[in-house]
Specification:
Layout (H helix, E strand, L loop, with lengths): L21 E4 L2 H6 L8 E4 L7 H7 L6 E4 L1 H5 L5 H19 L5 E5 L18 E2 L8 E8 L4 E3 L4 E3 L4 H10 L7 H7 L5 E4 L6 E2 L5 E5 L11 E3 L7 E5 L1
Parallel strand pairs: 1-2
Antiparallel strand pairs: 2-11, 3-4, 4-13, 5-9, 6-11, 6-13, 7-10, 7-12, 8-9
Helix pairs in contact: 2-4
Length: 241
């Protein structure tokens, strides 16, 4: 996919943000090169994007609650000048990520699927969770329109499987051998979810900002980033990979 830098506005003003587990950079090159190590598990390329992203959302078709939008679908839209600027920015982001070796997906989101198998322990993306991978990996994401994802410092959240009342409830639904309980928690993704403590400083990722956040993988030297999807009040348009 070719970049479309000629269509991009020259103004991308940094937005002041602060978070104890985050670093902030001013370019895509810095975003991908900044080390994730120890407690520093999120890097943000701060941007204030020009363009009318709402116009894109209004002209795109929602086939399912979460619909992947292709570059071809974007290019087929008839847009105003401001809509054109927004489209060029998204296509340029997709091209950057692909050139970096990622496989970005542009999603139009009404809502994510909810997990209601265990009422005391939902395991959907609306719960603070970590991404998990068998190989070293980081997640990229950017919200162009709608509510943004949120993160919480690792020191201000507790792994749910270690909260006594929740662990007791999990033990009550477990029917296997006692020595396999931890495997049960991992195989059913209970170990990926966290609960923010009272007074935790929850931060929005913000619109337009591109983030790179640490995932959990074997022998990682960085704490995985605790994050969650927002409860949608409107459609969201975001890229993730």
């Amino acid at each position: 996919m070719a970049t479309i830098d000629a269509c991009l506005p020259a103004t991308m003003t940094p937005i002041p943000l602060a978070h104890q587990n985050s670093s902030f950079v001013n370019s895509f090159e810095e975003l991908v090169q900044m080390p994730l190590l120890g407690e520093m598990n999120a890097v943000c390329w701060q941007r204030q994007l020009a363009g009318n992203f709402e116009e894109l959302v209004n002209k795109l078709s929602l086939a399912e609650d979460t619909t992947e939008i292709t570059a071809r679908q974007l290019l087929a839209l008839h847009l105003t000048q401001e809509g054109n600027v927004a489209r060029a920015l998204i296509l340029n982001d997709l091209a950057r990520l692909e050139a970096h070796g990622a496989a970005p997906q542009l999603n139009l989101i009404k809502q994510y699927q909810r997990d209601d198998e265990y009422s005391f322990f939902p395991r959907d993306v609306y719960s603070f969770h970590v991404d998990k991978s068998p190989i070293p990996l980081a997640t990229f994401l950017c919200t162009y329109y709608g509510a943004s994802s949120e993160l919480v410092p690792n020191a201000q959240a507790q792994q749910k499987i270690h909260i006594p009342a929740i662990r007791k409830a999990l033990q009550e639904i477990y029917s296997g051998a006692a020595g396999d309980f931890e495997n049960f928690l991992s195989e059913n993704f209970f170990d990926l979810h966290y609960q923010a403590i009272a007074g935790a400083e929850i931060q929005s990722f913000g619109q337009g900002n591109m983030w790179r956040i640490a995932a959990a993988y074997p022998n990682s030297e960085v704490l995985p980033c605790l994050h969650r999807a927002p409860l949608e009040e409107d459609l969201r348009l975001m890229v993730i990979c």
